[in-house]
Amino acid sequence: MNQLQSMRVFVKVADLGSFVRAAGAMELSSAVVTRHVADLESRLGTRLLNRTTRRLSLTEAGATYLERVRHILTDLEGVEQMVVARNHEPVGTLRIVAPVVFGLHSLAPLVQSYAARYPAVVPDVTLADRHVDLVEEGFDVGILASRHMRSASIVTRRLTTGCMTVCATPAYLVQHGMPTRPEDLLRHPCLSRPAEQGGEERVFKGPNGEVRVRPPNAIAANNTEMLRQFALLSMGVAILPSYLIGRDLASGRLVRLLDEYRLPPIELTIAYPSRLHLPAKVRTFIDHLVEHFQPESAPLPSTRGASSVRTVVARPAEPAVPDVDDEAPDTHEHETTRRLPRVARTRIAASSQF
């Protein structure tokens, strides 16, 4: 029989001094109560109760056992209440995993406001740009790009959608010219993630449908903040998340390119191991994230004419367009280049979806 239940029955019999009264109090039959006590005595190899026709009394061993069992049951009840409280009240360590750049640029203020609201929760944040197994690695909640989720058993919920932006510095554009079509990227040094992490073929949707290009990597890095630094040093054209370069675009340090074209959006997802008995610390953190991002999760604008597909094969880089001070034909591209100083001074509305 269940040993803990037998302990509870024994304590109730000892307190009430009767098998019958204990049975009534615990809504059990007298035979079951008697069996529980007999099972304990058999397990311990000693008599716990002296039984007469009129009354019950504890043996010396029974009195000692009763005292210790009371403590055990009291401690067990306290542990159960603590666990229940943790499931209903936000408390304890909350292990969070998120992409590195998103964590550095967007997550910190959210964690700060959550910790202020729920001071009994201790956030433990891990930043990682890799595949993450929430269950195996013991994370309570993850904010992940879909390509970085590996567990099949996790529960997911879309958090927000952001956009990728093609950009470069005004100084770079003055020297190399401004690309106006995705194909133009083939003759520009491009800053991208390694191919195995998504820095390969780019699919643009534009006025005449899809255009696929494979821009040549001048520099590859596995961290988008590093790519941003390279872009700010005028080392090439970069394709970066809007949340990372919003201030750079607004200040004119970077210029948004290829406005008529859109790249596939980035979708960030909340992931957690299970819906079953979801701890309050996880539930409230998820609600906190959704409360912050949901108003900004509007769909990206659609583009015109998505019926045709053009594939552009990479070719060796062509010579850079001459500087505006050189004697060059008055082409549309150079006309665009001469206007760059005014572009750099224009404040561009930055997307803050992330």
TrEMBL record:
Q: Which UniProt keywords apply?
A: DNA-binding, Transcription, Transcription regulation
Superkingdom: Bacteria
Q: Where is the composition biased (Basic and acidic residues)?
A: 329-338
Sequence ranges assigned to domain HTH lysR-type in this UniProt record: 1-59
InterPro entries named among the record's database cross-references:
LysR-type_TF_proteobact-type, LysR_HTH_N, LysR_subst-bd, WH-like_DNA-bd_sf, WH_DNA-bd_sf
**What name does the UniProt record give this protein?**
LysR family transcriptional regulator
Transmembrane regions listed in the UniProt entry: none
